[in-house]
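Today's session is about reading a structure prediction critically. Students often jump straight to the picture, but the first step is always the sequence itself: look for stretches that repeat, for charged clusters, for runs of hydrophobic residues. Only then move on to the predicted structure, which in these notes is written as discrete structure tokens rather than atom positions. Here is the chain we will use throughout the hour.
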Amino acid sequence: MPARILVDGEAAQQVSVLDRGLAYGDGLFESIRLVGGVAPLWSRHMQRLADGCARLRIPAADPQQLWREALQVSEGMPQSVVRITLSRGQGERGYALPVHVRPTRVVAAFAPPQVDPNVYSEGVCMRVCTIRLAEQPLLAGIKHLNRLEQVMARAEWDDPAIAEGVLLDSHERVISATMANLFAVIDGQLLTPSLDRCGVAGVARAEVLACCSEARVGEMTLAMLHAADELFLSSSVRGIVPVRSLDGRDHRPGALTRRLQQHWQDQGFTMEQAG
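Below is the predicted structure for this chain, in token form.
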């Protein structure tokens, strides 16, 4: 199914070659799961987008306008992923911020990814990536447009049996997967990596932290991952996905993973379609 796209509220498929999002990755994006015209995590997406705009000094978009456009592009689609892209807009050559900023707003709807239901029941296989994430606290947590680290990490393997890769920082601390956040249950304690130096603070991660008061955010090592009782990924598009192996070491979905999968379903997402 072709994407349905609005650029600054008008049906279009192009942006200016002078747009700073294209030239410098100067902008933000959100990938939002809609089910039957409802986006259960919408408020979390809007909060992260607003936080990112404040940090990058981009004028914030109107959430009500974004919601109207999200419904417009996803009309008639029982399941969709709406991507909102907000760049600083057009500007002269050079890194200096434009004096007058007029952001470019792109809202597009796509069919959700097809995911084998066995992924949710049995889990996925992962590997550790070679590339290391650079540390930049100013950009840590937000979903800015420059995803080259993730692109190059994903290029490290072509084995269809491997679904995801673990990303570390330059100090060998575990940060995330390439497209999701990572959680581990270690000695009965739910732990997820701190993202104050690099990485994306996912909205599904925020949802897990909100509903699990016992969860802890802190530093995580590969040794801790390998020793974990449970490992799972969180993604606003794919939901809660168990990890069944990491670099050949076996894991199995546990009670907490199953409880969070049920919470995901209770939000309105289904496991067969929640990709």
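Discussion point for the tutorial: The CA atoms of residues 190 and 213 lie 10 Å apart.
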